[in-house]
Amino acid sequence: MTTNNAALPENWLRNIILFLSSQTISLFGSSLVQYAIMWHITLTTQSGLMMTLYIICGFIPTFLLSPVAGVWADRYNRKRLIMAADGLIAVATLILAVLFLMGFDSIWLLFAIAAVRAFGSGIQMPAVGAILPQIVPKDQLTKVNGVNGSIQAMIMFASPMVGAALLGMMPLEWIFFVDVATAAIAIVTLSFLKVSVHEKAAGTQEAGYFSDFKEGLRYVNRHSFLKPFFLFFAVFFVLMAPAAFLTPLQVARSFNGGEWQLAAVEVAFSIGMMAGGAVIAFWGGFRNKNNTLGLGSMIMGVCTLALGVVPDFWVYLAFMALFGVAVPFFNTPATVLLQEKVEEAYLGRVFGVMSMISTSMMPLGMLLFGPLSDVIKIEWMLIGTGILILLLAYFLMRNKQLIEAGKPAV
Prior knowledge:
Blueprint (H helix, E strand, L loop, with lengths): L11 H34 L2 H28 L2 H24 L5 H29 L5 H29 L2 H20 L7 H4 L6 H14 L3 H29 L4 H25 L5 H19 L5 H29 L5 H26 L5 H21 L1 H6 L5
Helix pairs in contact: 1-2, 1-4, 1-5, 1-6, 2-4, 2-8, 2-13, 3-4, 3-6, 4-13, 5-10, 5-12, 9-13, 9-14, 10-12, 11-12, 11-14
Membrane topology: Multi-pass membrane protein
InterPro entries: MFS, MFS_dom, MFS_trans_sf
Keywords: Cell membrane, Membrane, Transmembrane, Transmembrane helix, Transport
């Protein structure tokens, strides 16, 4: 990569504080709206079809835009792209709030805003992943990504409670205004970030968008570790679908769960993620990042299997918390591997491919496991996918290309 510690400004710590502060403020406002809309649809329609449509609207635009967004993240100023995405989401949310105030409160407007917000996220995700190596020294990437994971977990922990409290105190449209305000604060905060434009964006863009995208795919194809890396993630995300989407239904069916049981599952998982992020930020993981990635995969496989067999709800919560601990052990080394090993000129496009995989594979998995959950017990699916995840983790830790890629950067 062309990014190196010497090229970074001395005040990189100030820059990362500004960047993470901006992302935290933006994510918190977005999470509030996400939970508020989801609960509003649930309470007003009580329809599984409506919830499915809402989820699809929140996934498909990100998936479709990711290839183009990855090219944008390599061709243009990444800081400005992130600010533009926040601005787009804020303007769309403001328009929705005004329409609701005027009495236009059709549920289809909520589907539309979910799609626009997903469009903004699709622009933002590759740029966020690609900009970090521009402002963080290589030897600090794991710790910074670990801290970022803990912050995201805290937001996951707090957002449902704050969102529920706000929804009880004010109408939905006023929560939209809260999101607009947090987006504005995030944009202003990010404007103070001092980061130089990366080399490709500073130069003349001679190739077209499609040529740039094809070149990105060729780069992935000829890079020794990216093909097995992305193949692993694609299979992993499909196998994760039951644990990610069907556990609330399992709690309702098998433990006669109500609101507090469902909330307890979310809280346990979020607390585990906070703890795992703190451990990774302090420890940094194994010297070979592939070993940390493999450990996270194995723990998640064990937890998925355990969620299918434990008969006691409190033990179930304990495994859900351990599941949360494993997530930063998985996400952080995976992100840092890309940030360290991929050339800066291709980072946006590579993170665009990663975004496509992460936003498409679990929904595809649900096309299989969702209908199956009405035919066979969810517990059997968790046991089966847990065993397969453990086998996948074993092959991951034995893969020579990934072992070589995971070695410390020099």
